[in-house]
């Protein structure tokens, strides 16, 4: 059989403790909800994104990072990566120092 344990009340032992002032913490500011990018994965859409990437690189005339390409093409980084994959497969891009330029 299980034994029953007796618990003494803690209030009886706290006879002369001073009470602490309670401090309320300010609520942390809420973070803005991240927007999820929905990309239609079909050959036509990916081809258009590749065109956007190609045009952005051609207009820049220099090597750009992925974030810079996305900003110049006015598309998301995910869409930029899709377009880059297409162009890499066609052999139209080269990389140097983590930057991408037209071949």
The secondary-structure class comes to: mainly alpha
What is the residue-mean pLDDT, rounded to a whole number? 82
Q: How many DSSP-defined strands?
A: 2
Order of helices and strands: HHHEE
The shape is: elongated
Helix content: 25-40%
Supply Rg: 30 Å
Give the spatial strand order of the biggest sheet: 1-2
Low-confidence stretches: none
Query: Describe the biggest sheet?
Result: 2 strands, antiparallel
Report on the architecture of this protein.
It contains 3 helices and 2 strands. By secondary structure, the protein is mainly alpha-helical. Strands 1-2 form a two-stranded antiparallel ribbon. The mean pLDDT is about 80.
Quick tags:
103 residues, mainly alpha, two-stranded antiparallel sheet, 3 helices, 2 strands
Précis, in short:
Helices cover 39% and strands 8% of the residues. It is mainly α. The mean pLDDT is 82.
């Amino acid at each position: 059989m299980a034994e029953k344990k007796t618990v003494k009340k803690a209030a009886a032992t706290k006879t002369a403790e001073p009470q602490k002032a309670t401090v309320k913490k300010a609520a942390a500011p809420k973070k803005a909800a991240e927007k999820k990018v929905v990309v239609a994965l079909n050959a036509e859409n990916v081809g258009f994104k590749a065109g956007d990437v190609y045009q952005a690189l051609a207009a820049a005339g220099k090597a750009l990072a992925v974030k810079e390409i996305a900003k110049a093409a006015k598309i998301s980084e995910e869409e930029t990566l899709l377009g880059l994959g297409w162009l890499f497969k066609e052999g139209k891009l080269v990389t140097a120092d983590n930057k991408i330029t037209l071949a």
